[in-house]
Fold:
Amino acid sequence: MPTLSEADSKRFLGACGIPFPEERVVHTPAEAVAAARDLGHPVVVKLGGDSIAHKSERGLVMLRLRGDDDVRQAAEQLLTMATPADGAVHLLVAPMLAGNRELIAGLHADPQFGMTVMVGIGGVLTEALGDVAFRLVPITRQDAHEMVDDLATQELLGELRGEPPVDREALCDILEALSDAATRDPAITGVDLNPLIVVDGRPVAVDALVEMT
Amino acid sequence: MAVDPAAFTALFEPRGVLVAGVSTHPGKFGFVSLHNILASGYAGAVYGSSREPGEVLGVPVVADVADLPDDTIDLVFVCTPATANADLLRACAKKGIRAAFLASAGYGEAGEDGQRLQAELVALAEELGMLVAGPNGQGVVSTPARLCAQIVAPYPPEGGIGIVSQSGNFISSFMNYAVQTGVGVSRAVSAGNAAAVTIPDYLDYFALDPATRVGLAYVEGVREGRAFFERVRATASRKPLVLVKGGATVGGQRAAASHTGSLASDDKVFDGMCHQAGITRSATIEEAFEAAATFATQPLPRGNRVVVLTTAGGWGVVTADAIARSSLDLTPLPDDLRAALDAELPPRWSRNNPVDLAGAETRDTIPTVIDRIVGHPDVDAVIYLGLGIQSNQAALMRRGPFYPGHGLERIVDYHERQDTRFARAAADASDRYGKPVLTATELAVTHPDNPGPAAVRATGRLCYPTANRAVTALDHLWRHARYREARGLT
Structure:
């Protein structure tokens, strides 16, 4: 299944109404340094490209870069990590978002029921917890709310460690936007928004992967 | 294929039944099905067909279907070999028979030849305009017609549960629970290979059937998942639908490029589909039966505020724990209700929810207390515990060496009358205020003849074997009520 690069995935989903933090696509370490200054430190720098799907597994995500030197070194290192199989690559510079909670949302084409939309508890424990809820596309606002209610770990959605509760309306906006995108564009076969970092209660997608036919 | 609901009348309310492939051997399907039809009080005409004409169990048996009267038989119950059935069904159609139930095996489950026969069967059903149920099914039960056309027991009491199953044995399991609990069945049908008539077809009929209050289905695989979803959602918007899925843990995670895909186990997607369609999904057969029995015999709650009424402490505590793990709310006792109960009870009652009478009740207390609690506007449902204790003691006294002297006869009668009265009071209050009132005691299964649970059965309701199971059933009712309310379904 062909996948869009992270940058293209975000552009595509951004047009569908999914909110992403502002980020820059650059090609040289010097451009990365300038972009990071512009966005404000700390930043994250990632290596991107059409053939690069799972960046964290390959160590292609550099987090918490606090100054010009950090950014330059990270950018140089990332560019050396590109392999010929990656094809054309670029650097993604984005603000480093802080939040204790991560969620996951996406679209999945089920072989039996067709396109589904998903929400779940994200982060490194996602697969181990398996705390996810699915609905068939298209969903209503009520369906979106009930999906969130279905999650077992409701404590993670409430007030936590001085952070406000997760903004359920904002989360439902994302789920509805995913459902709408799938309805509008039958070429979509899968979407990952992983993770959605909860920043001051608002879920913000910091990575995205779109699969198309 | 969507089946005309009117066609189901021939299956479930036939004017007459033909058993094709009747046998004189009491171990054969062709005997057992005829026996069960005759033994359960079916009032319509019954005929048999066989290569050996004559009479079986007093029923006339013909060698040629053409010799049967015209337009008196609506249903043929087919026990003949698969290869003989096409000719049989054509002959039946000529006699005005509009529905067939095929117990015959040798179709889709039996290799390539069987699959071909099954495809031909579906085409023939279409051509003849005949409703063809099965093949490879155990049979069909319809209590309004006192019809027990099946190759297995039991015949259940009449009631509001409409059952369809991909596994015939689970039809028997559900109906065994109906026999045990007294909460009865309207229709039950073993879908078999579901070649021409599918599970959603039966559920569509149940949704329109005035005899059916709730659908109950066991499914393993679902063909054409999207169409299944759309149809069961429409069904569940009309009537509650309880579903158990076998093979829930099979499938599991798939290899997928996306995290979303790897998290999409068959079961998670199926579960979400059920929630979205408004289906009550149960984990086990007994939980499914009890959920269906509750939908069939209790009104839907208007909210989730539950009061637990118990005659003794521990039961209430455990029930409160179960409620805490559910979507129900153990509501704080309203002040005016507390005051109303203070007026009825000596001061040692709990004065909170659970309402624990702590043995403070006198002769007329319990019916009054039940009425006050159920009638309170801030209470949506009640779970009543402790019924039958006194009758249990009475049973020991009745069997003991001192009965009937020492005043034992009088006290035994009194206890048994009281438990009967309390069971009725719970059902009466439920009817009066239109709220669910669930009575739970293990005596329902340990001592089913105890007058307490026996009186609950006599009201037509389920006496729950544990409070936890009452909580699970009520939780299912509330979730469905909430689903309906959120979507403006009445």
Summary: The two ends of chain A are 6 Å apart (CA to CA).
